[in-house]
Amino acid sequence: MVLKFDLQLFGEKTEKATPKKKRDARNKGQVVQSKEIASSLIIIVVFFSLNFLWGFYYDNVSELFRSVLEITNSSNFTFDTVLVLNMGRDITFLMIKLMLPTMLVAMVTGVIFSYVQVGFLFTVEPLKVKLSKINPISGFKKLFSMKSIVELVKSVSKAAALLYISINYIMDNMDLIIKVLDFPVAVIAANLWKIVYNITMRVAIFLFIVSLLDYIYKKWENEKELKMSKQEIKDEYKNIEGDPLIKSKIKEKQRSIAMSRMMQEVPEADVIITNPTHFAVVIKYKEGYESPMVVAKGQDLIALNIKRIGKENEVPIVENKPLARALFKDVEIGEYIPEQYYKAVAEVLAFVYNKNR
Questions:
Q1: What confidence score (pLDDT) does residue 9 get?
Q2: What angle do CA 233, 237, 239 make, to 5 degrees?
Q3: Closest CA to 269 of 287, 290, 283, 286
């Protein structure tokens, strides 16, 4: 025998978060963002650009050293303040010239990837002081929580993996590292850079893959935390759209006000066209109107009430079944009579005016 339980009875959060819930969480800064992905990607892009521009960097640095050696080895060399300032200026400009492309690449990469993760978001909510964050007891609990232990294990595992990747590459290329020491300076520099580049790229790619998997897991975990129960969805809907009971009362009040205003128009009308028992349409015409206007209409009890008020205020009542039905169906309160009903309404008004005279 299998027993089935409705998890909603226990307030179980089984429903996906609504757009409003996600929007509120985003405004509070509760978004999934991995700094490690951005960092590893920046390292990959920066080192790739450095390797691509290796000749540019090597030529400029070599030229600087060559200039310094020529100045210091010349026969009329004198060490003075002007020389130091000039050399400092040249070195500063060279460093800016060398670092600027790499810094721009790193900055653009970081901005683009941060935007890809969370889009444009500005909020001061995470900066607000919360007593729960500075509570030593809660901080101690977080320090030894399962989440902290998992993060520690992940960090140690990543450090061990990175160390293994680096040592493994060095051991595989140990012969090349030993032999390169006997080569000229330019060859030594190029080979050392190649070793550093290969190790760094392997480490960065490994970090990027691990961080990407971690990001996917955190995104799933965040969606799980944002899940809602059916009752929470109903409460949210009530808050957005308003309580149905309150809305019905508001509409009822609005109908009552509209009915009261409509009945106030009856005593000033020119004629009431009736069915005679089911429909009543109140017509009013005065100077400035495009055509006669329907100022009130009603069916059954409202129609009886309109005729009662009309009799009390001596408003003419004319029975015309087809016209009453047509006007009730096609013309709303406050609208002018359409052209197709001009003749029929004009005949009724002419009859009323002649009768009054």
A1: 46
A2: 115
A3: 283
Whether 132 has a pLDDT exceeding 80, the answer reads: no
How high does pLDDT run on average in the chain?
76
Instruction: Grade residue 44 by pLDDT with cuts at 50, 70 and 90.
Output: confident
| Sequential DSSP letters for 201-230 | HHHHHHHHHHHHHHHHHHHHHHHHHT-B-H
End-to-end CA distance of the chain: 90
Domains of the chain: 33-121+133-216 (no CATH), 257-356 (3.40.1690.10)
Residue 34 tokens, joined:
């991995």
How many Å apart are CA 278 and CA 212, to the nearest integer? 72
Please tell me which residue, 176 or 341, carries the higher pLDDT value. 341
CA 335 – CA 345 distance, rounded (Å): 14
* 317-319 and 271-274 beta bridge pairing: parallel
3-class DSSP assignment, residue 290: coil
- Are 185 and 192 in contact by the 8 Å Cβ rule? The answer is no
Phi and psi of 184, rounded to 5°? -60, 165
| Most confident among 3-17, 68-82, 161-175 (mean pLDDT) | 161-175
Give the integer Cα–Cα distance in Å for 95 and 93.
5
Strand 293-299: give its sheet, edge to edge: 293-299, 279-284, 271-274, 317-319
Do the beta carbons of residue 239 and residue 259 sit within 8 Å? no
Rounded alpha-carbon distances, angstroms, from residue 356 to 178, 258, 270, 271, 298: 123, 30, 11, 11, 25
Strands 293-299, 317-319: pairing is unpaired
pLDDT tens-digit series, residues 157-179: 878 888 888 888 888 888 777 77
- pTM beyond 0.70, yes or no: no
pLDDT digits (tens, 9 = 90+) for 80-95: 677 767 777 877 887 7
